[in-house]
Amino acid sequence: MNQKSRKNSFVIQAGILAVAGIISRIIGLLYRSPLAAIIGDEGNGYYSSAYNIYTIILLVSSYSIPSAISKVISQRLALKEYKNAHRIFQCALIYVFIVGGAASLFAYFGASHLVQKNAVVVLRVFAPTIFFSGILGVLRGYFQAHKSMLQTSVSQIAEQILNAVISLAAAHLLIGIVANQDDTTRAVYGAMGSALGTGAGVLIALIFMYWVYSINKKTIYRQIKKDRTKKLLSTEQIFRIIIFMVTPVILSTFIYNSNTSINQKIFEEIYGALKKVSEKEIATMYGIFAGKAVVLANIPIAIASAMSAAIIPTVSGTYARGEKRETNEKIGEAIHTTMLISIPAAVGLFSLAEPVVSLLFPRPKESIELAAGLLQVMTVSIIFYGVSTLTNGVLQGIGKVNMPVINAAVALVLQIVVLVPLLLYTDLGLYAMAIAMIVYSFFMCILNGISIKRCLGYKQRYVKTFVLPFFAAALMGASAYYIYKGLHYLIKSNMISLFGAIGIGAVIYFVTAIKIGAISEAELKRFPKGGMLVGIAKKVRLL
Q1: What string of DSSP letters covers 378-444?
Q2: What does the alpha-carbon distance between residue 35 and residue 27 come to, in Å, rounded to a whole number?
Q3: N or C: which end of the chain has fewer CB within 10 A?
Q4: What is the mean pLDDT of residues 253-270?
């Protein structure tokens, strides 16, 4: 948390977090393929079912803690109130001990009422992770408030590595124990192993973040000692701040992310109770949707999540100082940067959906076409989720924490109105779920945009932010598709053809984006390793 790190552009800090997020997602993808082979689509279904409920409980108890704590503490740091900032941190730890502990117990003892029978034991394995996640969230939020994302980034990568190792090992070991049992029992035990990996990952990240805090203690207490703030917040005031800040953020994040679980429940009820589809078949279908298509679609969204985490303390600081113009500039910069990556990622996944799915999830072959088709439909939502995730962070950063709650609730109702008739009266099945995701993310994007315009008078630059990156991405996507087809015809290797198409496509996008003015030299410099990118562009006479 040195001076240099604090002076860095928030885009650099977001870039660090985004790179970590992407690395984590790639690690997640690399282990997902062998894991899917071990536990199967049915096991994936039970894991996803328990994971969705685990996520909801986590959302309510502690998921929003990093962004909420980051906002509250960053406001105090902007005013150089180091004593109050640290007192908020300490009270936040007490808060998550109580709330996280209660949520863990609720997940464990209430599992039989929350998920289908075969997923109950999987949710119980997830339960302790909720408690550890709360403490981890406070530590991450504390460092994010200091505009230092490196600690969170390293902890995310460590978390995902251990998650991958333990998930594979535990799933293999537990399935081996029940090798003579039926397919469903093996699927359940495999899902339990994967849930153990999630817990192990969170635990190692928590240990790392505590170690980072310990080695920074001297610097932290030196700042506190120099602080001459006369008005210290009482414990009662701090808890009031935390509760009033965290509660709306929790509601917003809960509603924003709960659409997946609600959609799952609607799908299970309609297909199970009304269409008389078996639990095993529903779990297998949902395993393809959530365990393959959604996992791939979520990778680019990690960039928006990182940008959102980075922009909250920045926007909170500028807004607290009354710098409205600078706040709007930061918002525009963040949305533009996010779209420069999210749009080509969405187009690339659309163009190369089947080879990507084939590479990462080669078994069973009959599910590849369905997963690829679902992914192509979902790619539209990547762009909408990118904007809506970021604008959620902006609204929270300027203290308008109730607006995302209202917007998310409205979007949720609208997507349910679309989803239920599609499931009841059409044969779209899982495609109806993908369409619902688009509807939800689209309305969140529109409603959040209206809210920001009302609060800040923010004017979006549509051509440079959306149109130009899409033009460059469309050229890239078409080129990548035909390059893949040509290479695959010549060498018959999916992996080599895919990586070749991605590599050449990325170069085409980079060149086109610069040539048509989608990104300037100054904007390119703000990226991680931006100086190197500018140097390359100048050497080949793009700049």
Answers
A1: HHHHHHHHHHHHHHHHHHHHTT-THHHHHHHHHHHHHHHHHHHHHHHHSS-THHHHHHHHHHHHHHH
A2: 12
A3: C
A4: 79
Q: How many CB atoms lie within 10 A of CB 151?
A: 22
φ and ψ of 433, to 5 deg: -65, -40
- Count Cβ neighbours within 10 Å for each residue of 313-327 and write b for 16 or more, e otherwise: bbbbbbbbeeeeeeb
Give the closest residue to 305 by CA, choosing from 78, 182, 153. 153
SS3 (DSSP) at 1: coil
Q: With helix as H, strand as E and coil as C, how does 235-248 read?
A: HHHHHHHHHHHHHH
The string of pLDDT tens digits covering residues 134-150 is 888 888 888 877 766 67
**110-128: burial string, b at 16+ Cβ within 10 Å, e else:** bbeebbbebbbbbbbbbbb
CB 43 within 8 A of CB 188: yes
pLDDT single digits (tens) 14-44: 666 666 766 776 777 677 778 878 888 788 8
Distance (Å, whole) CA 4 – CA 16: 15
What separation in angstroms does the CA of 468 have from each of 58, 407, 463, 465? 38, 28, 6, 7
Q: What is the pTM of this model?
A: 0.71
Gyration radius of the chain's alpha carbons: 23
Q: Which amino acid is at 176?
A: G
* pLDDT level of residue 52 (50, 70, 90 thresholds): confident
Reference 473, options 509, 498, 441; nearest CA is 509
DSSP 526: T
Structure tokens at 236: 């009662």
Report phi then psi at 498, rounded to 5.
Answer: -65, -50
CB 424: neighbour CB atoms within 10 A?
12
Rounded distance between C-alpha atoms, residue 467 and residue 473, angstroms = 10
Backbone angles phi, psi at 178, to 5 degrees: -110, 35
If 0-12 CB within 10 Å is exposed, 13-18 middle and 19+ buried, where does residue 165 land? middle
**In this model, does residue 4 exceed pLDDT 50?**
no
308 backbone dihedrals φ, ψ, rounded to 5°: -65, -45
Domain map (residue ranges) of the chain: 14-460
User: Residue 510, class by beta-carbon neighbours within 10 Å (0-12 exposed, 13-18 middle, 19+ buried)?
Assistant: buried
Contact (CB, 8 A) for 530 and 524? yes
Task: Show Cβ contacts of residue 71 under 8 Å, excluding neighbours closer than 6 positions.
Answer: 145, 245, 312, 313, 316, 396, 397
419: closest CA among 299, 537, 266, 275?
A: 266
Using DSSP, state whether 459 is helix, strand or coil.
coil
- CA 529 to each of CA 376, 416, 525: distance values in angstroms, whole numbers, following the listed order: 31, 43, 8
- Distance, in Å, from the CA atom of 391 to the CA atom of 446, rounded to the nearest integer, reads 10
At residue 474's C-alpha, the angle toward residues 471 and 477, to 5°, is: 150
Q: What three-state secondary structure class fits 79?
A: coil
Taking alpha carbons only, the member of 468, 439, 459, 444 closest to residue 387 is: 444
